[in-house]
């Protein structure tokens, strides 16, 4: 199961067909309150079914990431908020087709 | 500019101890945009220290944030007496930036952790030249696992997957 939170946001909005149009708008976005609430209920059910354990594999992944030179004190992370802002701007501009 | 940057500068000017935790903190360990998680709020973890909290509130106001306690503006005067009551209750205050509607939760609790441990093992990352103290990724993940809310489980599932994909790519490169 490969999905980042952006995908979950898309899932919650039930925008499986979401593809940006030339004007930046997203096709296929469900726009009714009922659709939105149903999608939220489905996402909640999905969350309750997930069981993630902090097993040795996950802890080893975290240890590798923490040990990377780019994740030590002093590293410049200015790009992170720029990426966050770009995501935010993208979804702000999304309107019902 | 991220409103956290001028706020962090104001907090440093007042020698406030704070650590960025939660999803926003985990994002600082991302390799690229594929592992950055969209989040509406930022969580700053603070020690159970009324004087630190008073200075934190002052820094928030200086940086253009309005302070809230629940659904109401935080009482005035925002002095040590109020701070002691907030610390006693381990209550959360929220700083809201009117222009951007960014919310920053000033929390005195991080599930499973005391402040000093998180503070002592933090990373100080730079954003636009300003130090942002960020909790260890391990601590953020362990705390989310301990909290176990629906949103935490969703985050952990996606985060683990993102790390696996990232490290597979790294392994292929090397």
**Strand adjacency order, main sheet of chain B:** 1-2-6-5-3-4
Specify the CATH class of chain B: Alpha Beta
Structural class of chain B: alpha+beta
The tally of domains of chain B stands at: 1
Given the C-alpha coordinates, what overall shape of chain A results?
flat
Unreliable spans of chain B are: none
Question: What is the number of domains of chain A?
Answer: 1
Beta content of chain B: 15-25%
* Spans where pLDDT lies below 50 across 5 or more residues of chain A: 1-19
What is the straight-line distance between the termini of chain B?
A: 35 Å
The amount of helix of chain A comes to 40-55%
Which structural traits does this protein have?
heterodimer; A: 97 residues; mainly alpha; 0% strand; disordered N terminus; B: 174 residues; alpha+beta; two-stranded antiparallel ribbon; 8 strands; 46% helix
Briefly say what this structure is.
Chain A is mostly helical.
Please, could you describe this protein's structure?
The complex is a heterodimer of chains A (97) and B (174). With 97 residues, chain A is an all-alpha fold. Chain A has one domain. Chain A has helices at residues 5-12, 33-49, 56-67, 78-92. Chain A starts with a helix and ends in a 5-residue tail after the last helix. Chain B starts with a helix and ends with a helix. Chain B has 174 residues and is an alpha+beta fold. Chain B has one domain (4-173): Beta Polymerase, domain 2, CATH 3.30.460. Chain A binds chain B through residues 1-9, 43-44, 46-48, 50-52, 54, 58-59, 61-66, 70-78, 80-81, 83-88, 91, and chain B through 1-2, 4-5, 23, 27-31, 33-39, 123-128, 132, 136-138, 141-142, 145, 150-151, 153-158, 160-167.
């Amino acid at each position: 199961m490969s999905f980042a939170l952006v995908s979950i946001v898309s899932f919650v909005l039930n925008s499986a067909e979401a593809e940006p149009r030339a004007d930046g708008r997203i096709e296929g976005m469900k726009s009714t309150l009922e659709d939105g609430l149903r999608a939220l209920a489905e996402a909640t059910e999905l969350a309750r079914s997930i069981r993630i354990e902090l097993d040795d594999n996950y802890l080893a992944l975290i240890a590798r990431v923490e040990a990377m030179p780019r994740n030590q004190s002093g590293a410049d992370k200015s790009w992170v908020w720029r990426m966050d802002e770009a995501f935010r701007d993208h979804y702000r501009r999304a309107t019902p087709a | 500019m991220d409103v956290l940057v001028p706020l962090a500068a104001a907090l440093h000017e007042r020698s406030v101890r704070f650590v960025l935790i939660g999803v926003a903190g985990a994002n600082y360990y991302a390799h690229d945009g594929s592992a950055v998680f969209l989040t509406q709020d930022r969580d700053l973890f603070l020690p159970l220290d009324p004087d630190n909290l008073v200075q934190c509130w002052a820094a928030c106001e200086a940086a253009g944030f309005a302070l809230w306690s629940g659904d109401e503006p935080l009482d005035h005067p925002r002095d040590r007496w109020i701070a002691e009551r907030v610390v006693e209750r381990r209550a959360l205050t929220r700083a809201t930036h009117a222009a951007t509607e960014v919310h920053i939760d000033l929390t005195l609790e991080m599930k499973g952790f005391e402040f000093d441990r998180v503070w002592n093992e933090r990373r100080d990352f730079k954003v636009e030249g300003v130090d942002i103290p960020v909790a260890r990724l391990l601590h953020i993940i362990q705390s989310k696992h301990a909290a176990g809310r629906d949103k935490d489980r969703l985050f952990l599932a996606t985060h683990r997957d993102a790390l696996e994909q990232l490290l597979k790519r790294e392994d292929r490169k090397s």
